[in-house]
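tool_log.txt
---
The assistant was asked to compare two proteins side by side. It first ran the structure predictor on the initial sequence, then on the second. Raw inputs and outputs are pasted verbatim so the downstream comparison step can read them without reformatting.
(1)
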Amino acid sequence: MILRFLALLLMVWPLAARAATVAAAADLRTTLPALAQAHEAATGQRITLVFGSSGNLAQQAMNGAPYDLLLMADAATAQRVVAAAPGAVARPYALARLALVVRPGAGVRDLNGLKAALIDGRVRHLAIANPAHAPYGLAAQGVLASLGARAAALPRLVLGDNVAQALSFVTSGAAEAGLVALPLARQAGGGLSVVPVPPALHAPLVQTLVLMPRADAAARAFAARLTGPQGRAALRRAGFGLP
């Protein structure tokens, strides 16, 4: 009888111990870990976080990566996953906010100053996320177009694989300025100037989560925490808008 119980326990244990894998847009790097830790402490459910650009994470999910929950930086990328994964469910959780970050001594204090500095060459390198697969990169292009600075910026762009890497180019000195995620910019330090970008300057980025068909109770509970009062408060404090 005891041997039968132990055998049953060994069969069930891997299922009980499996961590929910959450693939998240890079703009959540400074916000999500604390939420995951709080969730683990409150529920005993384990959460594994994977960060990257939304486009790359979505492609990985569609290629079979074992993600339970995707936290995308825009709605269009999320809907591509839903279309490719019958049974997946999407819903918004935040509104992305951009910021201009500038290194000390660059002489740029606002967005109009960025335009002038791009034209006269004082800003030789402007970091943005790669618009080929990062929604923040597309939004940054929209900001430059709204400023009438897209042509001047084009030869000066330094593309990060995701928005966190784009910010790292500025903090490391590889770029004098960048258009990145406001929540990341607020935590960057290094004496950077941070100028929030008015949302009207780019198409809205409605950050959208996708619960994959394989999502277990832990993933669903974490999604509920993110979209509930605790998650919304944390997102607001970090600098995200709320849908």
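(2)
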Amino acid sequence: MMKKWIKATTAALTIAGVLSAGSATMAASVPKATIKMFIDGKLQDDVLNVNGRTMVQLTAFNDPEKLKYSYETATKTIVIQNPARKLTVRLKDGLKSADVNGKKVPLDAPVTVKKGRTYVPVRFVAETLGGTVGTDNTGKQIIVRTPSGEERFKTLKNGDLTEARKLAIHTPGVDNGMDIAPYGEGFTFVYTFPQGEALRYTTEYRGLITYYEINDSGISERKWQKDLLGKNGEAGKEPKPFGDSVYFLDNFMADWLNYGTIDSNGKKTELGSIDRYTNKEFANVVILPIEGEVRTDIK
């Protein structure tokens, strides 16, 4: 097993090195694009515009659940496979075409290496490999999703309430310029959701409360922060009270989870408490189903 792990790790490191290193012989003067792009909710800070086409680092289109990357040293070819779609894509630095299951497919812009990083036309890669690409409602942001990212997005927007909440608290996004540091002490995170909802919630940690909303593009937006201890101030607009809500209290130092409900008057009712140390099946579990709760924010 150790030998297999070493081989797999070595292969992964080799591929990552090739995709990010490459040869720096092309596009040295290509300007960086100003348009904002999100891949699976994460803002990309390294996007190019080549011949009017948006290019993204190949390593940014990362989907280990669906896609496999490899590199053929002899031919200097990047190989991407989507086994579920029985699809193989082969790319080479500088070429204006890709090999898709043995067929030559033209690219809007050539595979480009700049400062040791490999860039590809984002629309071609996303749509060919089973992902999606489009713009937000304002037309000012490019929204890209990997195949797994598209599945998560559907669950987030209209899937099971518990699974959507699990995704929500791990969805990357934007801070909207808000970054207040917590002032207090402690080892406890508290997640609070309006009853029946997954697309907005608050976190509380060391006296700092933060409010998030998941927008229509599946991007988490930080909307409000406040230091409840009064040391570091407040930023953004405080949301209206949630009313009836549910909470999940994660004491990561003691490896303990509490959860329950909060009524519209702020009264808490604990529904359960789990010692993860003795209940190993709950390791890393933060969000649990609340009996009788029905999702109300499906879009």
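---
observation on (2): Helices lie at 2-20, 122-128, 147-158, 161-168. The chain has two domains: 2-146, 159-282.
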